[in-house]
Amino acid sequence: MKWILILLLFGSCCWLAYSWVRSRKLLWEANYLLHLRDHERATVFSFLNEIGSRITKRLDLDQTLEMVVEFCCNATRAEAGAIFLKDKGDSKTLHARVVQGLFPPLHEVTSEKLISKRKFLTDYVKKERIQVGEGIIGHVAKYGESILIPNAREDGRVPRSANDLVPLVDLILAPLAVRGDVLGVLVLINKKDDSKPGATFDGQDLSLVTALADQASVTLDIVRLYEELSEKQRLEQELQIAHEFQAALLPSKMPEYPQIEIFGMSQPALEVGGDYFDFIEVDEHHLGIVVGDVSGKGIPGALVMATLRATLRAEAPGKYSPRAVLKKVNSQVMRDTKESVFISATYGILDLRSGLFRFARAGHEPLFCCAEGCEITSYEPSGIVLGMIEGEVFDMMEEGEVNLRNSGTAVLYTDGVPEAMNPQQEEYGVPRFKEMLRKHGQTAPGELVRTVMEDIGVFTEGIPQHDDITLVVIRWVGESQYETELDSAKVG
Amino acid sequence: MKSYDIKIHEAQETHGIQRVDVIGCLDSHTVVSFEKSLTELLDKSNSDRLLIDLSQLNYISSAGISALMGLTHRLRKRGGDVVLLKPTEKVFRVFRTLGFTNIFTIAEDDAGIQRSFSS
After folding, report:
1. Nearest-neighbour CA in chain A from B96: distance (Å)
2. Do A342 and B62 touch (CB under 8 A)?
3. Structure confidence by residue, pLDDT tens digits, A306-345
4. Which long-range contacts (CB under 8 A, 24 or more apart) does A312-316 make?
């Protein structure tokens, strides 16, 4: 009996010691991951600042691309890098527009002359044409996926000739894509970190480069479009570019979850109004939803919108207070924009398990909720627009919350809806808008948005509007996984 | 096209306060002319205190608010201010939604004007 007790005591001590070590290890890993995420966020911010200040001075494609490659090489300690862009007028071929460092052709090359003369390498790489789908660069251009090759010598996708020219250790390739359309490919080769000899590119580098490529793509798109025009055309087509740029900033597809239906639509005005909406995955159980309106018009307005989008996308993941996120965004917008430009926005975080929608309103229109058979409820927690003021006045911003399980449908919109105007100079107005929500609030979000847009069209008699019209509708549709889990737990 | 007019009361520059009436609608179309008039006025005027009467302004868009904000920044940097007088209910609602009631100085009457400029 005594021995059994001693054994049990010893076993318990061992288990406690193991649990302690394991919990320390998990804590350390969690801290490490947080640190990495902070590092990535900080790097993306500094990238945005850099690219922002460059393009404000001059919209030049080559300079912008050079800056992107240089920044990415420094951020990941890559020895060399290049950007391959799709050719003008032929979207099936790519060529290297910018090459930095000793960069080999990444498909099989047999030219003896080339192999013997390294100094011609950059010229050769720049001259060659790569078909979309050909080799690893063509693969990334075709499928729009980032690739990490940690051991280039043993990877069949890297041609041997490339290794003969420049010994390759590792590579990262990331697509430069806007709304699913690949514009080009960013390639970085050979990590050389003096503080960590022998380190190769890893998943963190891949994640960082993918994030940087994502942010760079939107800017490249606008700079390229701008460059393709003559001075006269630039003036004439600035609005058109801004339209296209603005469209590129909006989500190309709606998020899909079993427990919610969600739909957003922005109808651009005659001039560019600056409306924006986006969906951001905060984590696997939380979805960030933003609707905003930038006060600046044309290309400057679209650039402010790009700053808003990039900052939100960098800030939102892993943060559960919409007010805290908007506070960070405000500081960034304050730094990046002119003093008279501002953004109104509502940012909310939906808990996909509980249905709780917590939101903060930066001077934006109120949130409307329509529960079955009930009146429309309006939520307007106080808050000031972004980009105007920091400190105490901004920090007075409040958070509101509503549970979509009870409230059914939440509607976010921009002032273009109530202010849509008919030929008699009358406004569509909030009462008519609410009446539409009362009548059709229980239909699917896509249908509700289209019904309201059609009603606005009928009211305005189709005359062109001076402000964008944006609607985003979220509807709780049913038993969530969380409820099922809760039920199982209760049964268990 | 919405109506717009601006009246600059040259003679009413009393107590170093320049008074301006804005009538009609201040949106992305009319704001260009509004900014031009006000810039010219401030360039030639020694006053850094501007009173903008909004009692006849029926509509203001974000472009209009940007312009008011630009003016406010400019004059506050010079040590002055812009006071917005008697905005209509509709315009005031826009200021409130955007949170500008915490930034702009708004007065409802003459006593309020004096208080606002002296504070």
Report:
1. 8
2. yes
3. 888 888 998 999 999 999 999 999 998 888 776 667 899 9
4. A312/A278, A312/A280, A312/A288, A312/A347, A313/A278, A313/A280, A314/A41, A314/A44, A314/A45, A314/A48, A314/A211, A315/A41, A316/A280, A316/A282, A316/A288, A316/A347
Q: Which residue from B111, B118, B62 is spatially nearest to B85, judged by alpha carbons?
A: B111
Whole-angstrom CA distances from A46 to A56, A71, A334, A379 are: 15, 10, 15, 36
Question: Are B116 and B105 within 8 A, CB to CB?
Answer: yes
Is the distance from CB of A430 to CB of A481 less than 8 angstroms? no
Is residue B3 less than 8 Å (CB to CB) from chain A? no
Q: Do residues A184 and A94 make contact, with C-beta atoms less than 8 angstroms apart? A: yes
Q: What pLDDT digit, counting tens, does each position of A362-391 carry? A: 999 999 998 877 689 999 999 999 988 888
Domains: count for chain B: 1
Q: Which domain holds residue B46?
A: 4-118
The domains found in chain A, sorted by start residue, are 40-223 (3.30.450.40), 249-484 (3.60.40.10)
CB count within 10 Å of CB B114 equals 14
- Biggest distance spanned by C-alpha atoms of chain A: 97
Q: What is the CATH number of the domain that holds B40?
A: 3.30.750.24
| pLDDT, position A382 | 92
Q: 3-state secondary structure string, chain B?
A: CCCEEEEEEEEEEECCEEEEEEEEEECCCHHHHHHHHHHHHHHHCCCCEEEEECCCEEEECHHHHHHHHHHHHHHHHCCCEEEEECCCHHHHHHHHHHCHHHCCEEECCHHHHHHHHHC
Which backbone phi and psi does A114 adopt, to 5 degrees?
-65, -45
A362 touching B (Cβ < 8 Å): yes
Q: Does B32 touch chain A (CB under 8 A)?
A: no
> B87 near B106, Cβ under 8 Å?
yes
